[in-house]
């Protein structure tokens, strides 16, 4: 046999589109003020952490988790108001649910479609699954859905799945409700409303499940304060959820996540108070940023704000912030409508003012 290197083997067997990818890069925050990943900055009060630890003490790790996560299903249905007429499946974060959706429809010629700029995972996971990905530009001025462009792209590509993140990441806005309905109606495939930021927004499509045969709603507990648990949910018509659930690996929600999420939902008020606080601090941060002449900031219904700095300055401002110990997300390398843009997560009031001070100095 000819000599073989691991590189030869990768070349021979790995799909070219995988080899062409660069790995998803998450910077090490060290001890910086971490405002890059839309996390809730608040921890639980000590008494609640003690109660949680005592509960975990009773859990044994020698057994597999309940593959149906039945108790957690019931808690989530009650906590999120998901009626028995809707099907429900859980994922190891909503990222896993996006992956399951992609795997389910992965056939030559099938496409996933989403507005852009949008959540990067839709494109990445479509690529992983060997699907075509179609990005449809949002309106340039306010990042609203361009309904004509959406209709045209849907007619051309007949997508198997359309993802609409509402509020959208990284732009922070909610798409117009009538435009969303028009997309749902014009699409033969599944339309998934990704409500990762529902805790910070004024509208949800969850109560509208059942109105259309192709509407699904995705939620996650990550942005409401439980990012470390990795738990997302997808709700929709039972006939669709039933098919998707066949692709879910049986023990995808581990024992500690199941128990901790049930515990957290029982103490939902703590999370609700934290997210209410973040919503009001978002307004204060928006005002503070609006007062800086050199930048433009967009209104947001999520727990982050998108801003544009003077032309060509994004990377310098990003580095300046880092030197002041503040980590945000630099969107400028993505280019297009995100040229010169940074995204900042709403932190504690102290973190927010440290950020504003550092920003003024970095400009
Ligand atoms: C953060 C985010 C997610 C990912 O959620 P996980 O449950 O943490 O995997 C999904 N969709 C959007 C739009 C997001 O911004």
The sequence of SSEs as H and E is HHEHHEHEHEHEHEEHEHHHEEHEEEH
What bound compounds does this protein have? pyridoxal-5'-phosphate
Poorly predicted residue ranges: none
What's the CATH C level of the largest domain? Alpha Beta
**Amino-to-carboxy terminus distance:** 61 Å
The major β-sheet equals:
7 strands, mixed
CATH topology group of the largest domain: Aspartate Aminotransferase, domain 2
- The dominant shape is globular
Count of separate structural domains: 2
Using only C-alpha atoms, the radius of gyration works out to 21 Å
Task: Report the helical percentage.
Answer: 40-55%
Tally of DSSP β-strands: 13
- What is the architecture of the largest domain at the second tier of CATH? 3-Layer(aba) Sandwich
- Coarse structural class: alpha/beta
Q: Oligomer, anyone?
A: single chain
Give the full name of the CATH homologous superfamily of the largest domain. Answer: Type I PLP-dependent aspartate aminotransferase-like (Major domain)
| Share of β-strand residues | 15-25%
**Average of pLDDT:** 96
Strand order of the largest sheet: 2-8-7-6-5-3-4
